[in-house]
């Protein structure tokens, strides 16, 4: 069965490569830093979407890391057992199970007005939708990835190590900072990479909230587009080969980036759990 | 009386409803090596962990009664302070894997955020490792990770880590049960030297070890302190029938 899955993945990759050949041939490597995306004039540059993707993903990561770590430390060390702990852990994991489109709706109706108000207060154009809003929703969506791996790893820290530190007069905070954090560092980093892989590819909620313009974003409050959102938006409208092929090439780039990030993350986790 | 370092008065310890240490009264003198022995589950380790308030770290664990450390009840003191003041060595060697040998020795200072100059640290590290009979073996690899050492060396590193905090009392929780015979004898030999400057309380389920290393022995059975006497006296002429049964191997 797993062979079939391997074949499917390879098949997807091959299709992506074959289908993007027209665009690769016509545009070459310059495609990646072309700043203009104008299907009407047949000009295709992926740069605005690369920037959009990287910006949303990294802002989302920065927002999510304190939450993931706080949850992981609380449920891993302070309150590892009991009904409250189980309830919270399941809720965190449930966040990952909510369909992306629900987050999109919630974002449109709740988050967008809040962000618009906030933007008005700090005197930037109050779009409401844009990179910042998309990043917040992404942050919520990726918290469970970092947090649940973090909980598992923190619970795995051998208790003799913690006891050794306590017996030397360490406080709980000192044990967390000097024993648990160094011991789990590489695993927590892998958790971040997995969240990043998820954030890069997330489509639906982001498409609904990012504003969908193909210009290079000028600030984090400006509307933009990610690789995934532009594919979702424009795929049905792509009416000639080169346009379609340029979109598929975006898909290829996204595929390769997420695969590489996931592989590195899993590599670190395997190495970590084998020790 | 002035010679007493630890005194337990009606000390009781519980895990939830489970009464594991029952009304223990004991008085331990300075610079003595005390062996605490008894069958598994007799409360000897729990008693030991009560002395430096490690017992209460386990969820649902509680204690009643007094443990006086140089006349002051540890349960009236700050637990963090008590633990920093009393050294402890565990069943399995537990050097911190992310720290070098050098850093492991001064880990107590690092963890508690006590600032020590480099020169003072050098002195502490050399003195502690020398006392733990490890200096000669590791002096050229102080900045390697502590986990590269053999089990016996790791355990002596943990002893050095405890000594570095300059405690008067060091607790050992079955310190050789995870070690091979050669490492065990190196640690046992160390007890004789440590006695000069420290008081040692050693929990062991190995009767021969208790007989070899200790001045006095406490025998625990079913949570009670059955007998506490000179080691020689206890092994040749125990006062209590249960002690007699234990040392003659009638139960274990």
Task: Pick out the low-confidence regions of chain A.
Answer: none
**Beta-strand fraction estimate of chain A:** under 5%
Q: How many extended strands of chain B?
A: 10
Mean pLDDT reading of chain B: 91
Task: Write down the overall geometry of chain B.
Answer: globular
Structural class of chain A: mainly alpha
Largest sheet of chain A: none
Specify which chain pair forms the largest interface. A-B, 19 and 29 residues
Mean pLDDT of chain A: 91
Summarize the structure.
The complex is a heterodimer of chains A (275) and B (252). Chain A has helices spanning 2-27, 47-78, 83-97, 100-121, 131-156, 159-167, 172-201, 204-209, 227-234, 241-274.
Record the SSE blueprint.
The complex is a heterodimer of chains A (275) and B (252).
Chain A: H1 2-27, H2 47-78, H3 83-97, H4 100-121, H5 131-156, H6 159-167, H7 172-201, H8 204-209, H9 227-234, H10 241-274
Helix pairs in contact in A: 1-10, 2-5, 2-7, 3-5, 4-5, 5-7, 6-7, 7-10, 9-10
Chain B: E1 4-15, E2 18-29, E3 33-37, H1 44-51, E4 61-69, E5 72-73, H2 79-85, E6 86-89, H3 101-105, H4 107-111, H5 118-131, H6 135-138, H7 151-164, E7 169-173, H8 181-194, E8 199-203, H9 207-213, E9 216-221, E10 224-230, H10 231-236, H11 241-247
Parallel strand pairs in B: 3-8, 3-9, 6-7, 7-8
Antiparallel strand pairs in B: 1-2, 1-4, 4-5, 9-10
Helix pairs in contact in B: 5-7, 7-8
Give an overview in words.
The complex is a heterodimer of chains A (275) and B (252). Chain A contains ten helices and no strands. With 275 residues, chain A is mostly helical. Chain A has a single domain, classed as MetI-like (MetI-like fold). Chain A is globular and about 70 Å long. The two termini of chain A are 30 Å apart. The mean pLDDT of chain A is 91. With 252 residues, chain B is of the alpha/beta class. Chain B has a single domain, classed as Rossmann fold. Chain B is built from eleven helices and ten strands. Chain B has helices at residues 44-51, 79-85, 101-105, 107-111, 118-131, 135-138, 151-164, 181-194, 207-213, 231-236, 241-247; strands at 4-15, 18-29, 33-37, 61-69, 72-73, 86-89, 169-173, 199-203, 216-221, 224-230. In chain B, the strands form two sheets. A six-stranded mixed beta sheet of chain B has the order 6-7-8-3-9-10, with helices on both faces. Chain B has a four-stranded antiparallel beta sheet with strand order 2-1-4-5, covered by helices on one side. In chain B, helix 8 (181-194) links the parallel strand 7 (169-173) and strand 8. Chain B is globular and about 55 Å long. The two termini of chain B are 35 Å apart. Chain A binds chain B through residues 81, 158, 160-161, 163-171, 174-175, 178-179, 182-183, and chain B through 52, 54, 57, 59, 80-81, 83-85, 87-88, 90-92, 94-98, 107-108, 110-113, 158, 161-162, 165.
